Amino acid sequence: MEQDISRVKSAELFEKAKNYFPGGVNSPVRAFKSVYGTPLFIERGDKARIWDADDNEFIDYCCSWGPLILGHNHDKVRDAVAQQLDKGLSFGAPTRLENELAELILTNNSYIEKIRFVSSGTEAVMSAIRLARGYTKRDKIIKFEGCYHGHSDSLLVKAGSGLVTFGETSSAGVPKAFAEETIVISLNDKQALEEVFSSFSDQIAAVIIEGIPANNGLLIQDKDYIHFLRQITQEHGALLIFDEVITGFRLGFEGAARYYDIQPDIITYGKIIGGGMPVGAYGASKELMAHISPDGGVYQAGTLSGNPIAMSAGIAALRILAEPDFYTKQEEKTRSFIDTIRAYIDRRNYAVQIFTVGSIFWFAFTDQKSIKRADEIDPLSMEKYKVMHRSLLNQGIYFGPSGYEVGFISSAHTQEDLNQTIEAIKTALDTAFA
Ligand code: PMP
Predict the structure, then answer these.
(1) Exposed end of the chain (fewer CB within 10 Å): N or C?
(2) Same-domain pairing of 136 and 262
(3) Given this model, what pLDDT does residue 165 score?
(4) Rounded to whole angstroms, how far apart are CA atoms 428 and 394?
């Protein structure tokens, strides 16, 4: 085992933070509960690299959990934010920047006609669910085990026992009555979906799925299954919501909708569209969006919605993403990175799979060549991830602090960064399988 990096200053900051915040953090997974050691407190980032409070340097594959597809401190994004800083931080009134970002999105994305900006992915999904309920005048929603949609009440629900059951709350504080409106089933199970629809056909407002489920490993679904979702929802007058908070503008400007060639009814976005600032959005056809206030009866609002700083960052970022070949290059870079690691894994005969789509990847410690459902992941396999994660940190590579989290490659990752990472991953895998 390599020598552990110094975490003296991070540990001091964490001790202090525990006095202020529950668990010392403002979002639970940051607490490093699933991996070795105290969380690293990050001081700064530039391109593909971050530095922590102890001045350890890392090549970053967490990328702020996805938003930083251009890497840290991109000059165009930074300049756009700096320019807006001179003009003011927030007005709570419309600005031309909202038009600009909307135009950029809507002219390059054929799956939505109107959009509403909010401040987080959670808010985007919560609002999309309300729109679906308001439009259909039905209450129940179907979600899938292993998909995360933010922390609003209706969505903090896990599968109950039995094939077709109402969900159970997965957080204290979520009223049972709310959980009863959410039906949770397994991914990739047509029969379960058919049974739910035959039991509750005229009560189901929407089926919600992550564009490509990427919050519980990377559970890439077959095209055929996604088309089945489209068909069954249409047959029963329910809406199909694609939660593209991760996949939106990551797989391409048109996200998973284009990847699967599917027209969802509502699409939610977050992360990348804010260029690293807090933004979320939901979009749909003009007809559906006419139901949102002040045009329609579905209320949704926000003091900081369309915030000028966040809009400026988003515009600068998305302009770069809209350039020809941006996504092709990302994908090629990721594929060659993953192929090289796979070749090593094959040579060593390690029980590891790397699932990948676009510039997203996930290491699964298993022999199973395909994983499409949350319950196909063996929790014990996470022990190996823990060892790999520690070894990677010791070698200057920052992966997300849980084996269920996916990794992201940004345009700032150079071939040199990737080569350095490949060598570190080989060592980390040797350590995990020693
Ligand atoms: N939906 C998906 C698919 C997500 O990945 C996330 C966050 N990881 C959310 C919703 C919630 O977004 P936020 O954390 O910005 O509230």
Answers:
(1) C
(2) yes
(3) 59
(4) 9
Has residue 355 been placed in a domain?
Answer: yes
What pLDDT does 62 receive? 98
Select from 281, 299, 321 the last residue of a domain: 321
Q: What is the 3-state secondary structure (H, E, C) of 47-103?
A: ECEEEECCCCEEEECCHHHCCCCCCECCHHHHHHHHHHHCCCCCCCCCCHHHHHHHH
Same structural domain for residues 91 and 50? no
In a domain, 2, yes or no: no
Predicted confidence at residue 333, as pLDDT, reads 98
Q: Which of 321, 338, 358 is the last residue of a domain?
A: 321
Residue 245 in contact with ligand 1 by CB distance below 6 A? yes
- Ligand 1 near 24 CB (within 6 A): no
- The residues annotated with a catalytic role in the active site are 148, 243, 271
Considering the domain architecture, whether residues 129 and 41 belong to the same structural domain is answered as no
Q: Would the pTM count as exceeding 0.80?
A: yes
Q: Whose Cα sits closest to atom 14 in ligand 1?
A: 121
Is 98 near ligand 1, meaning CB less than 6 Å away? no
> Does residue 314's CB lie within 6 angstroms of at least one atom of ligand 1?
no
What value of ipTM does the predicted structure carry?
0.99
The residues of the chain scoring below 50 in pLDDT are: none
pLDDT at 311: 98
Nearest Cα residue to 407 out of 369, 358, 348, 345:
358
Task: Please choose, from the candidates 365, 344, 343, 361, the residue with its C-alpha nearest in 3D space to the C-alpha of residue 353.
Answer: 365
Starting at the edge strand that comes first in sequence, how are the strands of the sheet with 49-52 ordered?
42-46, 49-52, 57-60, 397-398
| Ligand 1 pocket test target in 25, 119, 122, 127 with most atoms within 8 Å of CB | 122
Tell me whether residue 54 is in a domain: yes
143 plus 245 within the same structural domain: yes
